[in-house]
């Protein structure tokens, strides 16, 4: 168990936490949620001992080992991949070092022999004889091939470093596992593996993540960081979100009888607890929900952006036609080849690829920003596009404009009455209020810039939106609001996202770009990922990759 007692933390006049008291128990996975800047990562650092609180203490059951997902990707640059994983169990690693040092002695004494015997006994008890093979297995499951295991960390591909550090944290079955954004830069398959691993994990997991699908898959509880306090709620993220929304609606409904409200809540809990999953986490979550006291369900204090897209005109029959588009990367490798398809009215398409550069390049081509190597595309005459690029830096160059003047640049020519209340309305929907609209755009955070870009899109009243990683830099509240707006949007959506829930809930069609063509299926994202025929087609297409390269 790990307990937090009267924790307070201040930075100057800013109070981040005030008298926080919590307990984290074995067998549970806690998802730490909160708005950007609320202190989620800081809280994990307090738990791990990296940051000392201004007041209070963190207590861990004696003898229990804590492992933390390291955030410094360069810390182990001079170590091999395999040794970096073994270092995750510091006591075992120290034992290995001492044991090897004794055996390396040329003048091996009787005392050395006695110490070596002690070390061997402890080494065996700790699973030392299988440690290397266990570490290698873990690396393999995370997609780090054996050829890299003896390579120095500084010499492996950058996208592999997180996987190694993740293996390091998971190695040796720690009693307390602390993970800050563990799914960043992981592909769908690896995230799925991690979900399954943690769903059956028997010890304590405390995780910060913006990935709602991941939080739903692994969490038994949610730790909500809000207004200097942290409160633990039973259930996963979706349960917390939907129950808090239900509680808020019930609070505002003065006419509904108390017993009817109670009945609604009980039905809601029953629906969520009927989880067919056999994982330990799901079972634990179900038991916890069955014990839930209705009074523990509270409306949230969260503020959600008002993301509403209104179409200036309805989409016509001709939307987008793509013919034989191809594009290579700067290093000559094919990103996609011979891409042909048509977009129909009502399509919401999830674009998918092993190489994200392929997706960004494709979106940039159809948006007219860069040129294809071959092929062509044609937009329908009724189409008004709204584009959210992966890299928005070009829109904020200069940086001397206020938010209001910045947004004014993007008002469509047909809109004539562009006064302050008009612009305030769009910025206000994205939670910019009061004097915030007079902020210069060069001081905005990454999340604030994305919210500005969404305001820019809304003001254009598009009937088709192109979204390249729309959840980047956003907090869970903004992600949730954006997701729901796209579900309700009556126009056409072309999107790619690492947010599994976004892709699954919005898209009714999936197009995968490969170096030798496309896979195009009219199905949900989850159905696509599980479809065996799709897997077989993908294998065949990547076999053709070398032909295209030539």
Please tell me what the overall shape is.
globular
| Corresponding CATH superfamily of the largest domain | P-loop containing nucleotide triphosphate hydrolases
Number of strands: 18
Low-pLDDT residue intervals, each spanning 5 or more residues: none
Task: Report the end-to-end length measured between terminal Cα atoms.
Answer: 58 Å
Give a structural overview.
The chain folds into three domains: 1-64 and 175-302, Rossmann fold (3-Layer(aba) Sandwich); 77-173, no CATH class; 320-396 and 458-549, 3-Layer(aba) Sandwich (Rossmann fold). The protein is built from 20 helices and 18 strands. The chain has helices at residues 40-48, 81-86, 90-103, 110-125, 131-141, 158-170, 188-199, 212-218, 237-252, 258-273, 280-290, 356-366, 403-408, 420-429, 446-459, 476-488, 500-506, 525-530, 532-543, 545-549, and strands at residues 2-11, 14-24, 29-33, 55-60, 66-68, 176-180, 204-208, 221-226, 229-234, 320-328, 334-343, 348-352, 374-379, 385-388, 464-468, 492-496, 509-514, 517-521. A six-stranded mixed sheet has the order 5-6-7-3-8-9, sandwiched between helices. A six-stranded mixed sheet has the order 14-15-16-12-17-18, sandwiched between helices. A three-stranded antiparallel sheet has the order 2-1-4, with no helix packed on it.
Short description:
The protein is an alpha/beta fold. The chain has helices at residues 40-48, 81-86, 90-103, 110-125, 131-141, 158-170, 188-199, 212-218, 237-252, 258-273, 280-290, 356-366, 403-408, 420-429, 446-459, 476-488, 500-506, 525-530, 532-543, 545-549, and strands at 2-11, 14-24, 29-33, 55-60, 66-68, 176-180, 204-208, 221-226, 229-234, 320-328, 334-343, 348-352, 374-379, 385-388, 464-468, 492-496, 509-514, 517-521. It folds into three domains: 1-64 and 175-302, P-loop containing nucleotide triphosphate hydrolases (Rossmann fold), CATH 3.40.50; 77-173, no CATH class; 320-396 and 458-549, Rossmann fold (3-Layer(aba) Sandwich).
């Amino acid at each position: 168990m790990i307990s937090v007692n009267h924790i307070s933390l201040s930075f100057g006049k800013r109070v981040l936490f005030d008298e926080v008291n919590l307990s984290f128990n074995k067998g549970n996975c806690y998802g730490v949620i909160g708005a950007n800047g609320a202190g989620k990562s800081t809280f994990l650092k307090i738990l791990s001992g990296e940051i000392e609180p201004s007041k209070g203490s963190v207590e861990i059951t004696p003898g229990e080992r804590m492992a933390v997902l390291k955030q410094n990707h360069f810390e182990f640059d001079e170590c091999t991949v395999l040794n970096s994983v073994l270092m995750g169990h510091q006591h075992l690693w120290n034992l290995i070092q001492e044991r090897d040092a004794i055996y390396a002695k040329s003048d091996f004494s009787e005392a050395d022999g006695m110490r070596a015997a002690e070390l061997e006994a402890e080494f065996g008890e700790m699973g030392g004889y299988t440690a290397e093979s266990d570490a290698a297995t873990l690396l393999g499951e995370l997609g780090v091939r054996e050829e890299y295991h003896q390579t120095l960390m500084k010499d492996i591909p950058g996208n592999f470093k997180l996987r190694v550090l993740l293996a390091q944290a998971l190695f040796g079955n720690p009693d307390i596992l602390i993970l800050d954004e563990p799914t960043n830069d992981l592909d769908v398959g690896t995230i799925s593996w991690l979900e399954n691993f943690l769903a059956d994990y028997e010890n304590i997991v405390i995780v910060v993540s913006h990935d709602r699908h991941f939080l739903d898959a692994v969490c038994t509880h949610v730790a909500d960081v809000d207004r200097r306090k942290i409160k633990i709620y039973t259930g996963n993220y979706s349960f917390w979100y939907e129950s808090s929304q239900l509680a808020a609606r019930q609070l505002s409904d003065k006419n509904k009888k108390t017993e009817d409200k109670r009945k609604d809540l009980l039905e809601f809990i029953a629906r969520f607890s009927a989880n067919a999953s056999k994982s330990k986490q799901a079972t634990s979550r179900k038991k916890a929900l069955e014990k839930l006291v209705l009074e523990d369900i509270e409306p949230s204090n969260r503020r959600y952006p008002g993301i509403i897209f209104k179409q200036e005109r309805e989409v016509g029959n001709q939307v987008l036609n793509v013919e034989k588009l191809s594009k290579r990367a700067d290093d000559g490798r094919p990103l996609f080849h011979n891409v042909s398809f048509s977009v129909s009215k009502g399509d919401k398409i999830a674009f998918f690829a092993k190489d994200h550069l392929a997706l960004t390049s494709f979106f940039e081509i159809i948006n007219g920003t860069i040129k294809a190597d071959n092929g062509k595309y044609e937009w329908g005459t009724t189409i008004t596009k709204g584009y959210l690029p992966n890299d928005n830096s070009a829109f904020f160059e200069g940086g001397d404009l206020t938010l209001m003047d910045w947004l004014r640049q993007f008002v469509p020519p047909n809109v004539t009455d562009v006064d302050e209340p008009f612009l305030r309305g769009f910025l206000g929907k994205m939670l910019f209020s009061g004097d915030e609209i007079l902020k210069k755009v060069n001081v905005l955070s990454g999340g604030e810039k994305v919210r500005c870009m969404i305001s820019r899109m809304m003001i254009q009243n598009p009937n088709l939106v192109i979204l390249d990683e729309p959840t980047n830099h956003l907090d869970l509240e903004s992600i949730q609001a954006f997701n729901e707006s796209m579900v309700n949007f009556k126009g056409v959506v072309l999107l790619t996202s690492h947010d599994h829930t976004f892709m699954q809930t919005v898209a009714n069609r999936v197009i995968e770009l490969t170096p030798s063509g496309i896979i195009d299926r009219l199905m949900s994202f989850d159905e696509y990922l599980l479809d065996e025929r799709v897997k077989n087609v993908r294998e065949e297409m990547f076999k053709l990759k070398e032909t295209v390269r030539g």
